[in-house]
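Handout, page 2. Input:
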Amino acid sequence: MAERYEVEQQPRRTLWGKIRRIIWDDIQDPEERAFVRRLDIGLMSIAMLGYFVKYLSQANIANAYASGMKEDLNFKGNEYNTLLTMFTVGYVVGQFPGTLATVRISPSIWLPTCEVVWTALVMACAAAKNVHTLYGLRFIIGLLEASAYPGMLWVLGSWYGPAELGKRVVMFQATSSIGTMFSGYLQAAVHSGLNGKHGLAGWAWLFIFDGVICMPIAIAGFFLIPGTPNKVNPLARFYLRDQDIQAAQRRMERFKRAPTKGFTLDIFKKTFKSWIPWAFFVPYTCFVVGLGSYAYMNLWLKATPPWKGNVTAINVIPTGGYGLSIFMSLVYAWSSDALGTRWPICFIGGFPPLIGNIILATWPKKNSTKFAGFFLNFTATPIGAVMLAWINEIMASSGEARAITIGFLNTGAYTINAWAPNLIFPASQAPHYKAGYKVTAAFFAIWIISIPIIIVLLRTLSVPNFKQEIEEPESHGIESDRESEKLPDLENSLNRGLIISGVDGKATEPQ
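Output:
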């Protein structure tokens, strides 16, 4: 107990220190502060760049479709929906095994290897002569991209503490909007400058340029993804010193983030017997399916004067929504860590997209009102990341349980998302869908209702403590666990608040 934190010996923070803590971090120990700075330069940089190129290569299909691919490859009926579904099916199939492979093999090997291969296949899309070739390519690309999001979330949760994770996870998520924005600008640029050059259409050049941008970032992942604090990537030693690794291991003990010990049948059983994956499955699935509601904005622009036929406008105008998404990501990230709890952001963040979908469900006559509806839908993007950060911390007592839960939620949600858009947003009804925005409005309503239900469950039901079961079979009770969680200042608030989401201080400790 001698090594417990002595809160009274810590210097009082200045007003600027408190402000700086909210905006970014205010780590008191110089050695630890230097370590987190190095971690940001290495891990956060490659996490954000990797997710940026993931969405650059994922969003290009919509931009290419709206920029001439539909006509060149003779798309018919709902073939565009089928193309999107092929990617999603691959994404679903790869989610759970890919997340487990990230843990079992090593994130510094698995994640960049998948990225290198999918980048090559994205470039191969430029040579497609028919939609059936694209079906196969997009399935495999989805299969390989499936590990990127849950895998990197798991890695971030292995290195960052509760006062740091919220900002990093939401910023990581925000790069999806940056990638999608950039894809729109890139398609507009290549279509006007390269359309028809060397016998390739502008949409085909988009795939090639995506590959040129993505491949160096994919290769850099082998060197910048640090593995985990207990299994450090040797190629990352150029920016992580021995004292950094020791600091990381001490921090993970402090934050009760258990190191990986290997997957066992008991870990799977205990994880799925817990109420946590099943309770979070409902709102997270509603988020994933509902999130797609803004993706049809370019199809509306393509069918609506005065933008009809203007490829540049069709690709550029939706980027304003992605800019709004980035802004809201920063707001939610700061608010989440500053409040010391995740649930208010998850709850409040559901209202803007709910209103946006209600607006589009009424399909108002004024285009300006439709714009407002679409743009409100873009604000939904970061709330899913906040929820997964919350889950990362609830399941902190087992690295394997964190991976299983995150992988399960993404797999389950995208299993439904693989077929739901075909029913909700059939391409043959574009741009005015009979049921589409009514259904997605209902999904966001369910998301909002689910958050207080989860809070009640967290207060009344136990949270599994894998560490206690594996390492402390003769535990002396809850009081010793509570005593060990006396973390200073914001860390104390987050360590409890992120898990229990209490309003009045009453809570259920992890059991």
